[in-house]
Amino acid sequence: MTPLSGKPVVTAAKMRAAEEAAIADGTSVDILMARAGTEVAQTIRRLASGSEVLILCGPGNNGGDGYVAAAALRAWSLPVRVAALAPPATDAARNACAGWSGPVETLAETKSAPILVDALFGTGLSRALDPAIVAALRRLNARARLSIAVDLPSGVDTDRGVALGDIPAADVTLALGAPKPAHLLYPAAGLCGAIRVLDIGVPASSDVMVLAAPDLPMPGPDSHKYSRGMVAVVGGDMPGAAELSAIAALRAGAGYVLLLAEHGALQPHAIVRKAFTPDALTDKRIGALIIGPGLGRGDEARARLDQALASAVPLVIDGDALHLLDTARLDVVRNRAVPVIMTPHAGEFDALFGKGEESKIDRARAAALRSGATIIFKGADTVIASPQGAVRVAQSANAWLSTAGTGDVLAGAVGAFLSGNANIAFDAACAGVWAHARAARRLRGAFIADDLADALTAVRSRL
């Protein structure tokens, strides 16, 4: 088993292509199934602690994996039963079933067990399960001490992360070969429980990957405040939001933070405060400019956004500024010679780029291509997409981030990394999202945005 961090995220089609490539190189389907089923069995063996295991097998190759796992568990003298939805429908699944020497019960009549293994349907499911199957799953799941899904919980859309019905959640999901979008995208991700990737000997590659810890430089003997990055934050109608961004930029490692606002708090004293003027944006030492937190949506806010867009400074566009991005301003974003990072949540994203039925990954990538900006599509399943096509998907975030001001903190962290990271927008966006999530995990629960900004100091010091 390996953790998700840094792993490629593959669609159902990409996983099939990887398996077909392995078969073309001489590895038979039966060998692949034997590997997958044995890996599943080894994991079940560790988790079951000697308790009886019930494996539910579907008619396809996911069910075949279940038969292999059951045979291995029996060979290890562990108590295991098998219940099938239907007879095996593929040659490999039939061969795997033939290797199981015990009885095969029916899904409708089987009795529960402390350990439930769902090997009914894996990747590629596109329609809702029959209500009778869902009822059986829910009955058995409710009575199990631990439920384990093989590859994916039965009843989720692999690529879109959509739940295809009112299916029960697994406690553990064993991703075969590589994580799939449904392991990371909600609502399906919420049904997967703890996710572990099992190596089945099928190399998979993708330009979509699970977000990993950034590799950031530490200050050296030649460092000074400007080499570490100067961040400017444009204030507006709600000064607290801009203050949070400014504090977060400092805590994330920026060497100098300039808050361009007419009013606001006086601490921390490390923040330099000046009134906003268009001339302030011409300072060539500014490595990143954050606009949007607390900006407002009136005429003055529009004027400040236009001045920021006309500047030669890399931009982080957040909050209110996103609401002011009409078609003409999006054209300006696309044609800028220096990087732009945009940080919309779902409502802001829909207003900017329209709603869609595609996966969050596909929508974020299309938005980045259309706008020419790096997109941080925020949420419990934040997706970062570059205009060049690279995508990173963050693992589930701390639900306590659902409080006012945490987005302002994210903008500040991203601005800090953009100012001090050679203006590589995609890397800065990824680093900001990772640090923001790590700070939230350190705080655990019931924190406020001010706490989150302060927690960035400890996170950055350990990168």
TrEMBL record:
Binding site for (6S)-NADPHX: 61-65, 122-128, 151, 241, 294, 345, 408
Domain (YjeF C-terminal): residue spans on this chain: 208-463
Record-listed K(+) binding positions: N62, D118, S154
Keyword Isomerase on entry: yes
Chain sites annotated for binding AMP: K378, G379, A380, D381, T382, G407
Cofactor: K(+); Mg(2+)
Gene Ontology biological process terms from the UniProt entry: metabolite repair; nicotinamide nucleotide metabolic process
Keywords: ATP-binding, Isomerase, Lyase, Metal-binding, Multifunctional enzyme, NAD, NADP, Nucleotide-binding, Potassium
Superkingdom of source: Bacteria
Pfam families, per the entry: Carb_kinase (PF01256), YjeF_N (PF03853)
EC number per UniProt: 4.2.1.136, 5.1.99.6
A GO term for molecular function: metal ion binding
Record PANTHER family: ATP-DEPENDENT (S)-NAD(P)H-HYDRATE DEHYDRATASE, ATP-DEPENDENT (S)-NAD(P)H-HYDRATE DEHYDRATASE FAMILY MEMBER
Protein name: Bifunctional NAD(P)H-hydrate repair enzyme
Taxonomy of the source species: Bacteria, Pseudomonadati, Pseudomonadota, Alphaproteobacteria, Sphingomonadales
